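Running this now, will post back.
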Amino acid sequence: MQELRRPYGHTSPHRTDTRAADLAAIEKLHREDIEVTLSQDPKGLIDVWAEDGVRFNPGGPPVVGKQAIEADNQKFRAVNPAFKVLKYATDIKEIQIVDDWAIEVGNTEATYKMSANDDPVSLNFKGMRLLKRQSDGSWKFALVGLK
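Update: finished.
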């Protein structure tokens, strides 16, 4: 994971140990994201989001707010009860942390089946994720946009 520098030579107001702690907490969010996506754990799929998070689904309208994301997930599961994620991996190429926000740029690779009888579908997305530091020091997704 490559770290971007602040523009025009500005230095981060955070000390090095805080930066290391932030990167460790962000990596924890990445691991949780992979785990809950593969398991399709309904609670876990919501827990990775900030209260005011925004999810942009390819080809669909944005879903705004944790409750709306949960409702969207439930609607998808009702229509696709046998949906299964076979592979999900992210490759973060760049990350910049400024105060309580982090911007990530990278690639996401996923393979899934809509039902047991369907052939697997593989997708590769390029995208950006905006993370928001929570009051407990953890990080959550504030905005996810994939293309």
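Confidence is low (pLDDT under 50) at residues 2-12. More later if anyone needs it.
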